[in-house]
Amino acid sequence: MTTAPAKAGWRFRQPSVIPGFGLTLGFSLAYLTLIILIPLSGLIWRSAALGWADFWAIATDRRTVNALEISFGTAFIAAAVNVVFGTIVAWVLVRYNFPGRRIVDAMVDLPFALPTAVAGIALTTLYAPNGWLGSLLAPLGIKVAYTPLGIVIALIFIGLPFVVRTVQPIMEEIDKEVEEVAATLGANRFQTIARVLLPGLAPAIVTGFALAFARGVGEYGSVIFIAGNLPYKSEIAPLLIVIRLEEYNYAAATAIAAIMLALSFVMLLVINLVQTWSRKRYG
Amino acid sequence: MEVRVANVRKEFERFPALHDVSLDIKSGELIALLGPSGSGKTTLLRLIAGLERPTRGKIFFGEEDASQKSIQERNVGFVFQHYALFRHMTVADNIGFGLKVRHGPTRPSAQEIRRRASELLDLVQLSGLEKRYPAQLSGGQRQRVALARAMAIEPAVLLLDEPFGALDAQVRRELRRWLRDIHDATGHTTVFVTHDQEEALELADRVVVMSQGRIEQVGTADEIYDTPNSPFVYGFIGESSSLPVKVEDGQVWIADRPIGLSATQAPQGEATLFFRPHDVELVDECNGCIAGTVAASRRVAGTRRVELEIGGERQRVEIELPVDHPAAQKSRVAFRPRRWKLFPAA
Fold this sequence. Notes:
The complex is a heterodimer.
Chain A: H1 21-48, H2 52-59, H3 62-95, H4 101-107, H5 110-113, H6 116-127, H7 132-137, H8 148-172, H9 176-184, H10 189-218, H11 221-227, H12 237-246, H13 250-282
Helix pairs in contact in A: 1-13, 3-8, 3-10, 6-8, 6-11, 8-10, 8-11, 9-10, 10-13, 12-13
Chain B: E1 3-12, E2 15-25, E3 30-34, H1 41-49, E4 56-61, E5 64-65, H2 71-74, E6 76-79, H3 91-100, H4 110-123, H5 139-151, E7 157-161, H6 169-186, E8 190-194, H7 197-203, E9 206-211, E10 214-219, H8 221-226, H9 231-236, E11 241-248, E12 251-254, E13 257-262, E14 269-275, E15 280-282, E16 290-300, E17 303-310, E18 315-322, E19 332-337, E20 340-344
Parallel strand pairs in B: 3-8, 3-9, 6-7, 7-8
Antiparallel strand pairs in B: 1-2, 1-4, 4-5, 9-10, 11-12, 11-14, 12-13, 14-20, 15-19, 16-17, 16-19, 17-18
Helix pairs in contact in B: 3-4, 3-5, 4-5
């Protein structure tokens, strides 16, 4: 914690004796400006040219609202599912030694490496009404492909490694003694996990959720194959942007993009604040 | 509660960590398990706790066979060297944890748990720190919280694994005295593991000296120090010097000279003579004594430690002299141990 006297007001944290602070900070700022800030401000600039009334009209257009709802809703559900199952996968990889563990460990990263379109096509083939899994689910009245459920499944696939890879290293650092102490104090296995282990993992799980969620909101390649892309029903916001671009309606495209940007930023900011708060408490 | 360890053997992947260990712990006793690393002292402690299962043998709490019970049912308080506090819980929540996880009618009300926690905090002299998180405490304070947490469940036996090992010397001495006070006040049967003999001898009612998976000797600090029953205990507890000797005609010989010690009880033949470096008398006339050339002389705190080379084999032994003793200036010193012990050569 910096405890500068209140009178001095805000100032740079005292850099360490090792030189390079000015150089690296300058480089970071220039780099971030070039890579992130300039393109994004271009986006806001373009949508600002639209004028408030037009912008509001596009923002409240039912197709836009539905697309945004589907994008954020499916990404949220997928990230939540990944939190549960990604944590279990990480647990199995960290805690147990079984033949093929390294292969499973490597498999977790596949969604990172695979072109997303390939994933989308593969999932669609599986879950289409005449596909392997889709034909099994169809008699139960469950339709996966060409519905929001299909989008969720694609996003679960894409987001899994984000949760596993953020939770895994923290889990590896859990002290066995903490569990042993809980057991001697009379806690059963379930109580130990729920009250001792999971709260300790919470910051990592929240980070994994944030990453999977952010990735899910922006995902395009895998989703458009399985979603069916029915306006109002299974059309995601990134696709709507592309549609507007193809219509040469650049203003509308940038407006939707700006709304997505604002929503994502707010959600990530909230998640970050939650993390800062928990880190302060638990040190 | 009484704890009885009966013929316990423990193997880790066929490698024996404990051979046939038996130990009786009286109710309310403070017992130290002392030994070098790898002697099996921590394994024995973990077996009593139920954190390991014995390969053979049984452990009784009172009349009950505890080896059949799970860790949770044994009701032991365990304190680790590195505290193992729950980082995300306040001090009060840490202490109350063992009560909170109880089921049904045995669980006290939230208010009662809070009251117990602050009572225990008073006992460990940390009153008013209920709301702190472990990260905000010093090492010594954390270990006190860990002990309070272990005592909160009214354990049948309190087990401490190197409780002061991670603390600096001054805090360690202070906590040692404090643990003794707490033990006297609460009367919990307590077993602690240490490799620090000073800690064991000062703190414990009885000390269990262990080596290579076996108990070498059990006794009070006086018994262990004054009448060690094996070469290992003699060498491990306190300072000691040893010399290879021979027993013949009821006399102790070094090479071809008797050294003025009579050993009528000892068996004939090769043996090792043990004595304490400070428990020797210097003699002027060497008429049956140990004599050697001074090889080195060091000042150690209040005394001077002199290293002597004895006989043609140039065996080295250490003796302690008062700082201003003139013998330290001489090149040759003769002495006779006041108290000593012979063990047959292995």
